[in-house]
Amino acid sequence: MTLKIEKRAEKLGTTIKLIGQIHQDDLGGLKAELQQSEPTIVLDLEEIFLVDVDAIRFLVECEAQQVKINNCSLYIREWIQRERSR
Q: The domain at 4-84 falls in which architecture?
């Protein structure tokens, strides 16, 4: 399975729901989606079940740029925290 992106504009910004897997090859398209979104961005990871290290580093960068990450699985959240502390 590849990455599916569902984008929803809302009053206070944009919610981008990600479904499937996030790999290095997906990051270019995902970055483009973020650049085309409203200033307040939420990434919904509820349906993400697999990521690679490049995806984790991307998510660390997103949080540093004030992108909110919702519905993140525990293993992804812990990996983000470990990567951030490096």
A: 2-Layer Sandwich (3.30)
